[in-house]
Amino acid sequence: MRLAAIDIGSNAARLLIVDVTTDAAGTPMFNKLNLVRVPLRLGFDVFEKGEISKEKRGMVLQTMKAYSHLLNAYQVEHTIACATSAMRDARNSADLIRKIRLETGLSIEIISGDLEASLIYENHVAEHMDPLHSYLYIDVGGGSTELTFFADDQLVFKDSFNIGTIRLLKQMVDDSMWDNMKNHIKQKTKGYKKIVAIGTGGNINKVFSLSKKKDGKPLPAELLKDYYKELSSVSLEERMRIYKFREDRADVIVPALQIYINVMRWADADEIYVPKIGLVDGLVQHLYYSLQPQS
Asked: What Pfam families does this protein map onto (predicted)?
């Protein structure tokens, strides 16, 4: 079965196309055929002005047209498409979604932060890890951060906070928002087994690549702090030149590290696993299971 997922985020839009096969036990295997990312950067418009500009609306439409052509070229059977924080906040998102549907046939659903957290958890990474620990998923986006806490073989909580990389760059996160997140984490994780973090999102994936760690090995919190100091001490241009970052990665990676470091400190987590998954992976798994006959 060939499936696809589209995620229109605050910083970029992603298209994931997979082939799903099953092994002898009937367990689905998701084989990635293509992952396309376009840096639309909608949050820079929306979080400041409350709407998507004409230029950005044109970029979104062209991106969705390109994705539609790829879906046809790959002969994708089923597609799920969602939008997150920037489209949630934009007062003209409904008009744009209507235009996309008319011109491409794609139906985009704007999902809540709570559902976003649930979909990231669809990857069920923690369920295959050491049961002697608790696990906190941290997904950092341009507009929001989703936290999902898994302990004692059950989902304890999932929450979304309007603290994201673009909002931080735009100085739209005040102390009360940080305090709310800190108090929430400390209160909800108190009394559970030692917490290990699971990081998702493009920025933590990039940090993991920089670290040269082997897949499956965690990053220590101290290493994230070292990278934060190192990257925040040089200019945007130097980050692009020294680390070979694209501009749309070079500016958001520093506030992303700030969020991961703070969340891990408040959860008393000393290390973070980076399985290189994101919302599109959760979306495609959600789509697959929704297509299965109900027993």
From this structure: Ppx-GppA (PF02541)
